[in-house]
Each structure stands twice: as C-alpha cells, then as structure tokens.
Amino acid sequence: MYRDVSSFNTYNYGDALYWDARYIQEAKSFDWYQHYSSLRPVVRRYIPTSSRVLMVGCGNALMSEEMVEDGYENIMNIDISSVAIDIMRRKYEHVHQLNYMEMDARDMSFFPDKSFDAAVDKGTLDSLMCGSDDHISSVRMLREVSRILKPGGIYMLITYGDPKVRMPHLTQSIYNWKIVLYIIPRPGFEKPAGSSSNPQPEPVPISDTGLLPADFVLEDPDSHFIYVCKKMDETTEVSDISSNPLIADAL
C-alpha cells in the first residue's frame, strides 16, 4: 500500500505558532514514528558515535538523549518552536553532549557549509510537506541539509513516505546523494504467526529510478521508511540546478 497523506492535513505544520501551542498543551515527551531502540541498528551502521550530528526538528523527543546514552558525543538539536527548545534546553542543561537552538530548518545559515557529519530527520520533512507552500519548503530544507553536510556525510530521513512520493525529492542532482532504503514496521506491529524475525534490518532493493520493485509487498502496510542519503564528493553546477523544475521554484 503506497500512500502520501500530506494532502489530508489542514494545519500549517511549517508555522512556529502551531508547534508552540502544541508543545504548551502536550508537555510529555513524544517520539514520532519510531523510538531510538528500533532505529539503532541503522543509525549505528551509518553514523559513528564520534560524529557531529544535527537533529533536524528535535521537538520534545527522547531520541537525542537515548543516542547520548548509546555513546554519541555531539548532537546539535534544532526546532522551529521556541517553546520546545526552552523545555529541552532546561531539561538537558547538564548534558554537555546535547545543545539546543531555535531554528527553522529551511534557513540554517547560522551553520557554516560542511559543518556536520550527519543529520537525522524523524518527521520534519513530512511536517513541512503537510503545510502551506509544501513544495518550496521541502526544497529549501533539503538544500540546507545538503549544504551543512560534509562530503561523505549522512542525511537519515525517517518518514511515512514511500519511494514513490519521497524519491523524486531526494534524487535531485543538486544534492548528489547516494541513497540506501530500509523499511521497518510501525511500533506494535505483530507479524503473522510463523514469519521470520530479523532484528537487523537489511537494505531494500530499489530500481534504477529509485522505486520499489513492482512485486514488492510491505509486511506492514503502515511501515516507516528510512532513507540513508550519503553526500558524495562531486557537486552540481548552479546552471544545472536552476534548470530543474523541482528546484527552480525555490531559488
């Protein structure tokens, strides 16, 4: 079952005011989609614990805390909500591995080019694609993520969006990303009796166009998708960027 439910939402998920109000009402920690324990095999495979990591849209999730408990040494957390950042900054003021900054992922100009080894996004791109100006917002965010990553750096996107709706955005030549796909069932999903269980997720084959094979069947129709995007060394000329219709509107 392939789906993209972004068009079903009426909230402007790219608006700081929406998130400020939400975090005032919902103070309890909340992790979108998956907990770190489920993501750990893939995170540890691609992101060394010594990496400088950017958590894009941290909210009030526990993932950064759990990564530090797992040995990660330097995580910069950003969020568009000043309320969320204030809550998290006070909560973790004595955890030197965690830093918090109010910031819009569509404009991370505070950070120099090539300043992070990895960026982790668990639901932030999805939220922008649910808001107004979703196309322009998503392009601006992905351009910024690509800019702040070092060559060889990893952008790890955890999303509900299957390849049919996410790969067109991720495979633009401006980013020059080599992409590996993982699929994991939603928390609480019960496998059919007799099916095998693999605690170590394996990459899922995708076609030359970045799509799942036509006969591929999701074990869980509501699975989550992990796109591991590695920034390659080569860069794309600006002339190539402006001629791409998916990119040009956001320039």
UniProtKB/TrEMBL annotation:
SUPFAM superfamilies: S-adenosyl-L-methionine-dependent methyltransferases (SSF53335). Residues 54-156 form the Methyltransferase type domain. InterPro entries: Lys/N-term_MeTrsfase_sf, Methyltransf_11, SAM-dependent_MTases_sf. Coiled coil: none annotated. Signal peptide: none annotated. The keyword Transferase applies. It comes from the Eukaryota. Keywords: Methyltransferase, Transferase. Belongs to the methyltransferase superfamily. This is Methyltransferase type 11 domain-containing protein. The lineage of its organism: Eukaryota, Viridiplantae, Streptophyta, Embryophyta, Tracheophyta.
